[in-house]
Specification:
The protein folds into four domains: about 1-105, Immunoglobulins (Immunoglobulin-like, Sandwich); about 110-185, Immunoglobulins (Immunoglobulin-like), CATH 2.60.40.10; about 190-265, Immunoglobulin-like (Sandwich), CATH 2.60.40.10; about 265-350, Sandwich (Immunoglobulin-like), CATH 2.60.40. The chain is about 5% helix and about 40% strand. The protein is built from one helix and 30 strands. A hairpin with a 7-residue loop joins strand 29 (about 330-335) and strand 30 (about 345-350).
Length: about 350
């Protein structure tokens, strides 16, 4: 009877140990959490691994900003939100994987913004696009000079000289953080347009500018090339031309020049042109040709070969003979106004 009881006890103990050995490996990477920037939190469970066949090997990834990636309960202090993956391997070779998310309070993405530059008189918005007042977050910018609101999350700055601003961002949950931003204020270019003049209708005038890197003349309709520093124009009425100049920093300024035009209907023939694509004197110009819509222009070489002809000439001949570039030379034209008056004869020289 005693032997039977002893055998039963041994059987129970054997089965208990066998069942315990067969308990599956279970791991716990911990619960997702939110922490403040600059603080730490502990990963893993209590315990991190159970069951299976001890001992266990722990591997946490990524292994940055972590106290010990091989520990069951390491401490982490991520600088950005991260997912940590835990891999546990027991002595029998069984592997389990779990993960845990460590998020950061949104204040981690708030800041003063990157250093930058502006042109004198321009404004710029400070702070990260993530900046927010949600959750009771407050901002204190200094100095307040040039700011529209020193307590705004994204104030607008209009500095008159290079300046550095600092901001302290406070949260009811996390420790205050501070940042700074430097704004370089670039001066405006000194743009000059030249020169005021009075011309007869049908004449052209040279316009020139200084003080910038890129130029734009306006209004562009009577200007040969409005995108260059020095150009020509043939206004038919008195016109004020505006020159917009941009410097290497992208700063812009402008100046103006007035061209007075005296009414005139006589034809004015230029005797040279230089078709090199620079936007100045690239075409054979006949002032007031537009007033004679039935006109016709014919151009010949010294030997009498016709190299160009056009009815209703519109100052568009660029020194080509039906697609072929003509050499430097003097050519001879016949211009018929189409109003019954005598044809005009003359010469024009191509300079390349």
């Amino acid at each position: 009877m005693k032997a039977t009881k002893l055998g039963l006890i041994l059987t129970i103990l054997f089965l208990s140990n066998f069942l315990e050995a067969q308990t599956p490996l279970v791991i716990n990477a911990g619960s997702d959490t939110i922490i403040c920037p600059g603080t730490t939190t502990q990963l893993g469970g209590s315990p991190t691994a159970t069951g299976g066949t001890p001992p266990y090997t722990y591997t946490w990834t990524p292994n940055t900003n972590i106290s010990n990636p091989a520990a069951p309960n390491p401490f982490v202090n991520p600088v950005i939100p991260r997912w940590y993956v835990l891999k546990v391997k027991d002595a029998a070779g069984t592997i389990k994987i779990d993960s845990v998310g460590v998020n950061l309070n949104p204040i981690y993405s708030y800041n003063a913004g990157p250093d930058t530059s502006v042109c004198l008189g321009s404004s710029i918005t400070l702070g990260s696009s993530n900046n927010s007042i949600a959750g009771g977050v407050t901002y204190s910018w200094s100095p307040s000079a040039g700011l529209n609101n020193s307590t705004d999350s994204n104030p607008i700055a209009t500095p008159t000289a290079t300046i550095s601003y600092s901001v302290t961002i406070s949260s009811p949950i996390c420790t205050s953080i501070s940042f700074s931003i430097t704004i370089i204020v670039n001066p405006l270019p000194i743009v000059t347009a030249c020169c005021p003049i009075t011309i007869l209708e049908g004449q052209a005038v040279n316009l020139s500018g200084t003080g910038a890197l890129n130029y734009f003349w306006s209004p562009p309709n009577s200007i040969y090339n409005p995108y260059i520093q020095n150009t020509s124009a043939d206004p038919i009425v008195t016109t004020t031309f505006y020159l917009l100049g941009q410097d290497i920093n992208g700063c812009v300024a402008w100046d103006s020049v007035r061209v007075n035009v005296t009414p005139n209907s006589e034809l004015i023939f230029f005797n040279t042109f230089s078709p090199n694509g620079d936007g100045i004197n690239d075409y054979f110009y006949i002032g007031n040709a537009y007033k004679y819509p039935n006109n016709r222009l014919e151009v010949f070489t010294r030997g009498g070969q016709m190299v160009y002809a056009k009815t209703n000439y519109d100052n568009s001949w660029n020194g080509y003979n039906y697609g072929d570039e003509l050499p430097e030379a003097t050519y001879y034209y016949i211009f018929t106004a189409g109003d019954g008056t005598a044809s005009k004869f003359g010469d024009v020289t191509i300079i390349r």
